[in-house]
Specification:
- The protein has 386 residues and is an alpha+beta fold.
- It has two domains: 201 residues, 2-Layer Sandwich (Ribosomal Protein S5, domain 2), CATH 3.30.230; 172 residues, GHMP kinase, C-terminal domain (Alpha-Beta Plaits).
- Helix content is 41%, strand content 25%.
- The strands form two sheets. Strands 1, 2, 3, 4, 5, 6, 7 and 12 form an eight-stranded mixed beta sheet that branches. The chain has a four-stranded antiparallel beta sheet with strand order 9-10-8-11.
- A hairpin with a 4-residue loop joins β3 and β4.
- α2 crosses α3 and α3 packs across α5.
- The site of magnesium ion has 2 residues, from loops.
Length: 386
């Protein structure tokens, strides 16, 4: 059934707008965002769609097509969490974010549907937040910029959902552009949309289909190890605020003061920031050999020093690197499962997919998924003719 019909059947009325926001994949710059550093994601062709119509009774009715579930609250009361329909807390957090900015939303009927794989590290959560944000801005005629919606969406996830993520996911979901990768400074939020040479290269996303428990704990542990590194390095480098402020050269000069584990973690972050800047240059020059080296160096530091890879991600990268036309590959996202990416010569995507679909299950007993996506547009709204 078409989504509009589902809306009509659910709410007995027509939606007035359709909002869309994409998931994302990070090409390079992993675990750098919360260190005030650099990242380089693309928005992907997988999206969350929100259909919306306004209500004048203050009620907000949410319907998730994918979970076939409802969640309801009223704008006249404080917005509560929904402990049963936890998917709705992302949308609720966005309503709360507007409210915090003095923008009280009118009531609304909202339908939510998505094809961003959930929990695979492709940021279906940011896609929901951004799709809801742009939908509410249009529905209410709120005067608020796209970048402010990005921040509002991150806050929804940090403060309402309680997931302490960086700004990257919402930023690329909100600000991505077709054909471009996003070089983002996570401190200043300065960014450059760098053309991705889609005539030469493709990005292939390989989902290991594994997800480790304890990911949240490990994530918080890495964050505090980086902070500890900064505290110790500040004795010699008093002006630094985050690992982003430390050059590779400075780091090599003072790293011996760090405990071994902290040193390993910081080594990855300092080098990874440098790799992002180098990757931007390599991409602009279409220097595939250099791009490949940087992707592989990123993977090995994440595996050996930051210790956030796992055997399935390592295997994915190893299989990919054995396929002709693959320029480079690495794990992407927080780690411990989720997805790896490969950058491949144009035309070699299917060959890689075929090999992954045979070799990965043969070695793990797990059926993987492969997604091929050109860099896509960020969140936007289309008015529907009534
Ligand atoms: P991801 O890596 O995909 O962002 P998260 O755990 O951060 O994983 O977010 C996934 C959560 O986002 C889901 O558990 C659900 O609550 C919400 N979500 C994602 N996609 C949808 C969808 N299509 N419909 C409703 N909720 C969704
Ligand atoms: Mg998420």
């Amino acid at each position: 059934m078409k989504l509009i019909e589902t809306f009509q059947n659910t709410f007995n009325r027509d939606p007035i707008l359709k909002a869309k926001a994409p998931g994302r994949v990070n090409l390079i710059g992993e675990h750098t965002d919360y260190n005030d550093g650099f990242v380089m994601p693309i928005a992907i062709q997988y999206v969350v769609t929100v259909l919306a119509a306004p209500r004048d009774d203050g009620h907000v009715n949410l319907y998730s097509v994918d979970f076939d579930a409802h969640s309801t609250f009223n704008m006249d009361n404080e917005i509560p969490h929904d402990e049963t329909q936890t998917w709705s807390n992302y949308e609720r957090g966005v309503f709360a974010g507007f409210l915090k900015r003095g923008m009280k939303s009118i009531g609304a009927d909202l339908l939510i549907q998505g094809n961003v794989p959930i929990g695979a590290g492709l940021s279906s959560s940011a896609a929901i937040e951004m799709a809801t944000s742009v939908a509410l801005r249009t529905l209410n005629n709120f005067d608020i910029s796209q970048v402010e919606l990005v921040k509002l969406s991150q806050e929804a996830e940090n403060q309402f959902v309680g997931m302490n993520c960086g700004i990257m996911d919402q930023f690329i979901s909100g600000m991505g552009q077709a054909g471009k990768s996003l070089f983002l400074d996570c401190r200043s939020l300065e960014f450059e949309l760098v053309p991705f040479p889609s005539d030469d290269f493709s990005v292939v996303i390989m989902n290991t289909k594994v997800k480790r428990e304890l990911t949240g704990t490990e994530y918080n542990e890495r964050r505090s190890q980086c902070e500890e590194g900064v505290r110790i390095l500040q004795k010699n480098l008093p002006d630094i605020r985050a690992l982003r402020d430390v050059s590779v050269q400075q780091f090599n000069q003072y790293k011996d003061e760090l405990p071994e584990l902290v040193c390993n973690r910081c080594t990855h972050v300092v080098r990874e920031n440098d790799r992002v800047e180098q990757f931007v240059r390599a991409l602009k020059a279409k220097n595939s050999a250099r791009m490949g080296e940087l992707l592989l160096a990123s993977h090995s530091d994440l595996r050996d020093l930051y210790e956030v890879s796992c055997k399935e991600l390592d295997l994915m990268v190893e299989i990919a690197m054995g396929v002709e036309g693959v320029i480079g590959a690495r794990m992407t996202g927080a780690g411990f499962g989720g997805c790896a990416i490969a950058v491949v010569q144009k035309g070699r995507e299917k060959a890689l997919e075929d090999v992954i679909m045979v070799q990965y299950p043969a070695k793990t007993g797990i059926q993987p998924e492969v997604y091929i996506s050109a860099p896509s547009d960020g969140a936007g709204v289309k008015m529907l003719n009534q």
